[in-house]
Amino acid sequence: MDNFSPDVIIIGAGLAGMTAAHEAILRGRRVLMIDQEGAQSLGGQAFWSLGGLFMVDSPEQRRLGIRDSAELAWSDWQGSAQFDRADDKNPRFWAEKFVEFASGDMRAWLYSLGMRWFPVVGWAERGGALAGGHGNTVPRFHITWGTGTGVVKPFVDLMVRYAADGRLRLAFRHRAAGLIVENGAVKGVNGDVLEDTTVARGISTSRKVVGTFQYRAEAVIVTSGGIGGNHALVRKHWPARLGKAPKTMVAGVPDYVDGRMHGIAVKSGAALINQDRMWHYCEGLQNYDPIWPNHGIRVLPGPSSMWFDARGDRMEAPFMPGFDTLGTLKRILSVGEHSWFILTQKIIEKEFALSGSEQNPDLTKGGWREVLSARLGKGATPAVEAFKEKGADFIVANDLETLVSRMNALTPDAPVILDHIRAQIQARDLQLGNRFCKDAQITAIHGARSYKGDKLIRTAKPHKILDAANGPLIAVRLNVITRKSLGGLHTDIEGRVLTPSGAVLDGLFAAGEVSGFGGGGYHGYNALEGTFLGGCLFSGRIAGRNA
């Protein structure tokens, strides 16, 4: 290491790791950061995200007439988390402190680092049940200009600066294999040096070993991410409460999100908790232009698409687009593995968006002119239109008979019945004859359009699906897409990793998804969106200030 003697070693060069490094360096600590991927992957999974951040009572909310508060946000969090285990003591404490952070100095801190936010606040995870249950009462999803790249960039710039002035050493293609434990305390890390790689970010890299390493420090921070790219591990810990794990899923994260460090930490005495809590989406598409293996893209739907299960039954409230992710996942898996959206061209133009920095170039690399052209111009966004044309899961037809026939050709083992589909759509269309109705989804559409942000760019004017003037008709087969671990290494409020007995494992800290975004699972059973990146920032900040 050229006589570089670190005080802190960080395993994982993602958002949580960079945040931890920044905070540790501000304290005068010398930091070594290792990662099994190449330098081109600095920033990890966050780079690929939409860049949404959960913030409370922000200027963006207030400009839109949204009244929010820490009290309301904490009520929503508790109703969503549903903490009910003895191990939830620390996660609950982390959650409470995060809500304070999200309603306190979070925005000012990130603003000082250069982040800015799209002025229309998104309303994700609306819940759709009782006030004390799951969901966001108000819009809180703040999309960063630049999307995930805009969240990552300030920290990447800091890492480059710190490396240049000698306070940080970056060791890429260094894959941890074990922690050095002496007298019950973690003193360092050992592992394999992998051969260099020049492949683009996200593409699978070689695992050929060309050497070994061993580094020692006063403290080690694990920020290696979750298990979403390792489907065998996802299935191993799949929660029975959601139904049987699907045989087929698409991957919402690169394959380096493999969960290796979970097992390595456990062998060194660490405790893992809440491994059966996870966050996977129902609206996954096969990427027609994949970057990583089995690459999936998530649809971010508005409220108007009709959602049918694999049998062709329309799903009841609250299992509607944008309301209750895990509740809807359980509902889908109760009868099959996939589901369907049926919608019109007018709906797809106004309401469809795709998650990820690469699917939103107007927000990632553009500005107001690009956003207005992509979001309010003729047709859907270019990314959505490309999927409609090339994606294996999209079907477009001028009439329902042809649409259903092609749906059944795509899923011959789970055909739907034309007359059954038609009757359900006709019943829904009949509800549009009055200003009032009994259809919960149409009521929800009216509710969404009462929020000026949704009315402007996210919700189509209610119209009849079977009216040819609104066509063509579109069906979208939706797959389960893996994404986040909600459990992980058990940590105390200082980010110190705990043992199975609850004692502190001296010298070891954890942050980000590997720690369930704080405490070993600060989401509880359900996430409120924007709390993944936020959790990486918050837990990384805590670990870096204490390691």
CATH class of the largest domain: Alpha Beta
Share of helix, binned: 25-40%
Shape: globular
The end-to-end span amounts to 21 Å
Could you describe the largest sheet, including whether it forms a barrel?
A: 8 strands, mixed
Q: Which value, in Å, is the CA radius of gyration?
A: 23 Å
On the 0 to 100 scale, the average pLDDT is 95
Going by CATH, the homologous superfamily of the largest domain would be FAD/NAD(P)-binding domain
Beta-strand content: 15-25%
Indicate the CATH architecture of the largest domain. 3-Layer(bba) Sandwich
The total of beta strands comes to: 21
Per CATH, what is the topology of the largest domain? Answer: FAD/NAD(P)-binding domain
Helical region count?
A: 18
**Unreliable stretches, pLDDT < 50, 5 or more residues?**
none
Structural class: alpha+beta
As for the number of domains, it is: 2
